[in-house]
Amino acid sequence: MSSMFNGLIGLIIFALDVWAIASIINSNAASRSKVIWVIVVAVLPVLGLIAWWFAGPKANYKGRV
């Protein structure tokens, strides 16, 4: 049971990291900044995700009306 729980947590972290990287790529930040943030999120999945959430560039999604 513990291994299933750990696998679920790992999958959630992976999905959040993919979402964060997609958001970084879709932001208006400079290319160099994007590359640095993607590397941080990829190398440090949990800490990078937390750092990006508070300080990283966010995507500029324009809603369709």
The count of β-strands is: 0
The radius of gyration computed from the alpha-carbon positions, rounded to a whole number of angstroms, is 14 Å
Mean pLDDT score = 89
Structural class: mainly alpha
Roughly how many Å apart are the termini?
45 Å
Beta-strand content estimate: under 5%
Count, helices: 3
The outline comes out as elongated
Q: What's the number of domains?
A: 1
Q: Profile the largest sheet.
A: none
> Which regions contain 5 or more consecutive residues with pLDDT less than 50?
none
Fraction in helix: over 70%
Order of helices and strands: HHH
In short:
With 65 residues, the chain is an all-alpha fold.
Provide a descriptive summary of the structure in words:
The protein is mostly helical and 65 residues long. The chain has one domain (2-55). It is 74% helix and 0% strand. It is built from three helices and no strands. The protein has helices at residues 2-25, 31-43, 45-55. The longest helix is centred in the N-terminal third of the chain and has 24 residues, at 2-25. It is elongated and about 45 Å long. The termini are far apart. The model has no long low-confidence stretch (mean pLDDT 89).
